[in-house]
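Quick log. Single chain, no ligands specified.
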Amino acid sequence: MDLSDTAWTIEDGVRRLRAFDFCLAKIRVSRKKHSDSELEPLIRCLHRRPMPFREVHLDGNLLTDEMGALLATFLAGKRFDIEALHLENNQFTTKTYLALAVALADNVSLKFLTLYGNQQVDRRRVDAEFVETLRLEPRRERNSLWQLYKVGRSDFARLKIAADALGPPSMLSQLRRCEINPFAIKRHGFCFF
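-> predicted structure:
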C-alpha cells in the first residue's frame, strides 16, 4: 500500500479510492487538460469513499457542467469532510457554479473553493445563490476562501456580509430555490434533481 497522502494521476487515484486507502487525503490531477470522460472514473470513485478528504485539485482540465453536477453531488454529501476543492481553469458555466452553491448548504467543512478562469458566468445569479447558501448554513468558518471569479480575490467575505444582512431564509424561499435550480441537491427531504 502507498503511504503517500497524495494521488497525482487518475489511475493512482482510482486504484487507491477503490482500495479504500485511508492514507489518501489529497487528489492532485491538475493542469493536465483531461476531459470529462477521462476524469469521470475518478470523480465517481470520490462518491464511494466514506472517509474524510482534505483536498481535491482538478484545476486546469477540460471539465464541463456534466462533471460539475457530479462534483456538486459529491460535495453535498454530509459524510464528506473536504477542506479544499480547486476547480479553476476548466470549462464550467453558470450551471456548475449554481450547483456547487446549492451543494455547499449541505457541506460546512469546505473552506477553500477556487472556480475562477472558467467560462463567463452570470455573476448576479451566482452571487445570489451563494448568498442564499450562506443564509441556509450560517455556521461556515469566517476565514473561508472562495475565489469564484478572480485569482487572489476571495468572494467569501463579501457574500457573507450580504447573507448576514438578509438574515435567515423563509421556508417559501427554500422551496422556491429547489424548484428553480435544475441542479438542486436533495435537501430536507423535499427537493430532488
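The first helix runs from residue 10 to 18.
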